[in-house]
Design brief:
The chain is α/β, with parallel strands linked by helices. It is 52% helix and 11% strand. The protein has helices spanning 4-7, 35-41, 55-69, 87-99, 111-130, 195-214, 220-242, 247-267, 271-283, 287-321, 334-351, 368-376, 390-400, and strands at 24-27, 46-52, 74-81, 104-109, 143-147, 159-164, 169-174, 182-185. A six-stranded parallel β-sheet has the order 1-8-5-4-2-3, sandwiched between helices. It has a two-stranded antiparallel sheet with strand order 6-7. Helix 3 links the parallel strand 2 and strand 3 (74-81). Helix 12 packs across helix 13. The longest helix is centred in the C-terminal third of the chain and has 35 residues, at 287-321. Residues 1-16 have low confidence and may be disordered.
Length: 401
């Protein structure tokens, strides 16, 4: 079997001069029902359906299996993708794929199921390649990603984040072959999301859009998509949290999270995610909650290098929220307006029920040095608009406590 270390040898030159997103992206109510027809078009007959660990993951996997059976197709449900998926989970998925004689992959769930499936797809492709079976355009099985949370945007990206279980650290893998062939966002799948999960995943999407917009690799393409995602999230996330059965709010957040995913897929991320990954790896804290806490802290730090863009963001936010945050007053200078945007990010988190700092997630000051050292080695922070030394990264953690 191809080991995890070999998966990590993928390239990371995806953002040099061209734009990436999955070739087919289905959005809207009822799109789940098209899974079978697209699996057939991709040449699949039996899918390994990778879902989250537990009863809910089994339920989601079974739901997809029923859709496949209506098209005369087969599947095997693997509810083995835990939060912050590990290399061990990836290897288990690969073993299940070959053991059940599957010929394609379907991920159903949030970022954990997506990332586990992405890493497994590469390992399967390498094995098939060695056995002369990998003749497809990507040297990996056909891959459909069915998203059930409006947050990670993983269904749209060429990134996967896997935890190295031996060293307890997160590894970010990037390569264009990780992108699904088809992504599916059906808002009906999100109506049952509880308010807390809706809030956390929504703030995760916001962190993607903001970091992509201020990234040193941002472009006209990524800027336009990121700004529209930011506008949509500020407008609709409070509604989705408050009224979870609002299909209009759920569909808006589907679009926003997908757009944010496309934006960071092409512009990269920054220190919010560089600082977030060590916390999730060390404490098992939910990624979206960690991002929500870190976002205003990091963006305040970024102000000297990104004030103009942050001010532009403020105009978009005020337009979307009917001047609720009071950002776009004509008397404000750029720096003042940018500072108001940072305050608006923190206010939005509080409005949807995310309060407290990293200490509320169990993070202690004793671990700050280890966290800062790990964050300084995170390649995902390379596109942050302001470059910090180790002490500055440590200070950001202290502020976020």
């Amino acid at each position: 079997m191809i080991g995890f270390s070999q998966i990590l040898r993928l390239g990371s030159d995806c953002m040099a001069g061209y734009y990436l997103m999955p070739p087919v992206n289905l959005m809207g109510r009822g799109s789940l029902q098209k899974t079978g027809s697209w699996m057939e078009k991709l040449g699949g007959r039996k899918a390994l359906i990778v879902a989250s660990i537990g009863e809910y993951g089994e339920l989601q996997g079974s739901m997809v299996l029923e859709v496949l059976r209506t098209h005369g197709l087969e599947g095997d449900v693997f509810p083995g993708a835990g939060p912050n998926p590990t290399d061990v989970m990836v290897e288990e998925a690969v073993g299940r794929y070959f053991g059940q004689k599957c010929d394609c992959l379907i991920a159903v769930g949030g970022g954990s199921a997506m990332d586990c499936t992405k890493a497994a797809s590469v390992s399967i492709g390498r094995i098939d390649e060695k056995s002369k079976k990998g003749e497809g355009r990507k040297n990996r099985p056909p891959f459909i990603a069915i998203n059930t949370t409006a947050g990670t945007g993983s269904e749209a990206t060429s990134f996967a984040v896997i935890t190295d279980s031996e060293n307890h650290r997160k590894i970010t893998v990037q390569d264009w072959t990780l992108m699904p062939d088809v992504s599916i966002n059906d808002p009906d799948l999100m109506l049952s999301m509880p308010p807390g999960l809706t809030a956390a995943t929504g703030m995760d999407a916001l962190s993607h859009a903001v970091e992509a917009y201020v990234s040193t690799e941002a472009s006209l393409f990524s800027d336009g998509i990121a700004l529209q995602a930011i506008r949509t999230i500020f407008r609709w996330l409070p509604m989705a949290v408050r009224y979870g059965d609002s299909i209009e709010a759920r569909e808006a957040m589907c679009n926003a999270a997908f757009m944010a995913g496309v934006a960071f897929n092409n512009a990269g991320l920054g220190y919010v995610h560089a600082l977030s990954h060590p916390i999730s790896a060390m404490y098992g804290a939910p990624h979206g909650l960690v991002n929500a806490i870190l976002l205003p802290v990091v963006e305040r730090y970024n102000l000297p290098a990104a004030a103009t863009k942050m001010a532009t963001m403020g105009s978009v936010i005020d337009e979307a929220t009917y001047d609720r945050y009071g950002i776009d007053h004509s008397g404000f200078r750029t720096a003042e307006k940018a500072e108001k945007v940072v305050e608006a990010m923190a206010d939005l988190a509080k409005e949807i029920g995310i309060a407290g700092g990293l200490s509320s997630l169990g993070v202690t000051e004793n671990s700050i040095d280890d966290l800062a050292l790990a964050a300084s080695k995170e390649a995902i922070g390379i596109n942050n608009p302001r470059k910090g030394v180790l002490q500055e990264i440590r200070d950001l953690y202290i502020q976020a406590l």
